[in-house]
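Hi R.,

Quick one: here's the Threonine/Serine exporter ThrE domain-containing protein sequence you asked about.
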Amino acid sequence: MTQLLLTSEQIGQLVAQFFIAGAGTLSFAILFACPKRTLPYCGLVGAVGWFVYETAILFGLEAFAASLLAVIPLTLLARIFAVALKTPVTIFLLTGIFPLVPGAGIYYAAYYFIQGSNELALANGISTFKIAVALAVGIALVLGLPMPHFTPRK
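And here's the predicted structure, written out as tokens:
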């Protein structure tokens, strides 16, 4: 008998987190005053990125590897929506990456440093740095791919 890789509870949590990440990304897009026609797409980009990240974490990847794996489809989706909607890719990329940015890691690194716990500060700082580098590398990999050139029809 085959076993499912994810339990129904884990699948339910993933679905809930998908919608929560989409709502958070949508809120961030509104805060950034993105054009109204791009708002649902911004939310979808962030939700997909978070879904891939959480799925990778469930399968045992470390946070930096999961971040790298998540930012690749996120950036691809941002490029696709940018071409389809004729808008800059940064509209989708800046808002979509919001759930993946390691803000808590930066906070705790600074907190532990101020408290004098240098070992904890260094550990949090290194893990946060690895995640930030993974995000940057993933974005650079996808944005480095050549864009198809479209010629107008006559």
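The mean pLDDT is 91.

Cheers,
M.
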